[in-house]
Amino acid sequence: MTFIGVSVSFIFVNLLAVGLASGVSTNPEWETAYNTSSGALILAGFDGLGGFGKFCAVVVALGLCSNAVPSIYAAALDFQVLGKVWKAIPRYLWATVVAIIYLVCAVAGRDQLFLIFQNFLALMGYWLAIFITIVFEEHVIFHRTKGYDWAAYEDKTKLPLGIAALASFLVGWVGPILGMYQVYWTGPVAARIGDHGGDVGIWLGIAFTAVVFPPLRFLELRQIGR
Fold this sequence. Notes:
Blueprint: H1 2-24, H2 28-36, H3 38-45, H4 51-80, H5 84-87, H6 91-108, H7 113-120, H8 124-143, H9 163-172, H10 174-179, H11 188-191, H12 201-224
Helix pairs in contact: 2-3, 3-4, 4-6, 8-9, 8-12, 9-12
């Protein structure tokens, strides 16, 4: 049920975004609003609904704020997994620190930060694809039958050293470097696609990682035993 609820909501919002993006190329008023900010485009999209449209725009803005809550909580967890010293600090304090950091960044970079993030965060998709490939293969190939020792999650002597994962991660990045088509970099493979280039960085990253990780992990298990 959780998956269905999340999927339906994501699909609905993405369809609205597709409609707004399509309208930018056909509606001059929307194009002007988009050149101002994404928030102005949302207001322009709801303009035909009058007062109710403004109410919907406020709901969207509040939804954007609430959408940051899971990320703040996840960032607090990330700090705590760095070690026992970091774990000793209460999670709500880490969440407060994270909220202060992103608030300062948002205020200080309000004129340019969005564009920087828009261009830079696209690079994060490649990292995520490589990471998911490693986790997926670790689960399917090495843990599907024997399961996990959940009691050993904090015992360094029983956890993998991560040599195979790190090596596969670095090799996997060769794929995005060759196949990405982004503002900051266009790979040689991406540049050869069509007349204007095309982005195949994610797929090359997945392919490189999927081929390299299993043999390296088998070798790591054979030589180190964990």
